[in-house]
Amino acid sequence: MPFSDFHGNAETIYRLRDMLARERFPHAVVLAGGQGSGKYTLALMLAQALNCLTPLKTEGLPDFCGKCANCRRIAQSADLDARFAEAVEARENLRDADKKETRLFVQTHTDVLVIPPDPPQMMIKVDQVRRVIETIYYRPAEGRERVYIFTDSAFMKEAANSLLKVLEEPPEFATIFLLTENPGELLPTIRSRSMVFPLGALPAEEIERYLTEHRPEWKAAERALVARLCEGAVGRARNFDLAAYVAARGHALTILNSALRDRDHTELFKVTESYRPGVEGREKTEQLIRTLYSLLRDLASIEAGAPELARNTDIISELRRLAESADFEWITTACDRLAEVERGMRRNLLRSLSLDAFAASLEKA
Ligand SMILES: [Zn+2]
Q1: Considering only CA atoms, which of 255, 232, 249, 217 is closest in space to residue 314?
Q2: Which helix (H) or strand (E) holds 164?
Q3: Which residues, other chains included, contact 14 with Cβ-Cβ below 8 Å and sequence gap of 6+?
Q4: How much is the pTM?
Q5: How far is the CA of 77 from the centre of ligand 1 (A)?
Q6: Taking residues 129-158, what's their average pLDDT?
Q7: Where does the pLDDT of residue 333 fall: very low under 50, low under 70, confident under 90, or very high at 90 and above?
Q8: Distance between alpha carbon 152 and the CA centroid of its chain, in Å?
Q9: Ion ligand 1 neighbours, Cβ < 5 Å
Q10: What is the mean pLDDT of the chain?
């Protein structure tokens, strides 16, 4: 998978490859962009370019072959979710004493170490950074560059401070990638020692074109809808679970209808009852909340006289009907109340009850 397979953000890609060409690649690179914007894909591509055994040029700039032993082994880390799950399982199978001591890593090539946030807290821990410090000053064994990829910017305090020490004096043959949705989460002292590259959202039309090529099995209308729902992120578009989204949206519409139009709440209770405690219920509720936000945003667009900005284009007439009963004040209140439901979830309040309360509190007098 050479650089031409990366979609969008051409200028950022050009700058990075240009630095490779001038052998001025920075020792610390922050790749900043939303979920699914391609941060991890790009970091792995650069790791391959830095270590390819038969490096080549395309468009006059450094590229990688994708076929040599180094490229192939680095590419084995590409399915991060799968590699992460394997690492978690491997740790689960350890003796209790060792389990505590073991931190999570993904490594499919000697010189490329991927550092995911460590569960259950899902933060980067000091022992993970310690592993970086222990290895980073040794020359690469099979490649030309030692590469470290932190896949998240949620660092425990001590971990961030340890990383800072490495960034103060990195060896010439190592590169550290820090992936983040929000560079503000990183210590300012870490940011100032890194070069920050943003990965911006892609226009819906561009994502639609991408989906035509990569999801030919979807209907054109489905591709158009996903291109608007994925917030400019190719990775989210490609893996978009439209069926799950449509199911959650049905529930979200029932809740909004019940608040704005219906006096009979039988349907509402049927929906909210299906939101159970536990891990599965949590994911389902999170999906519902995201969907409610997306519908409220569309209602606001219609209310503002800009229905063309609505994302749920396939149900626009239903949204127009709902918008007739809503106004800006109601939409603002609904967003605030939804934020309360989110906070309640973090405190583990009973989910179905808080959804009922949400709908009830929004009923028009
Ligand atoms: Zn190669």
Answers
A1: 249
A2: helix 157-168
A3: 61
A4: 0.84
A5: 15
A6: 96
A7: very high
A8: 10
A9: 52, 64-65, 68, 71
A10: 92
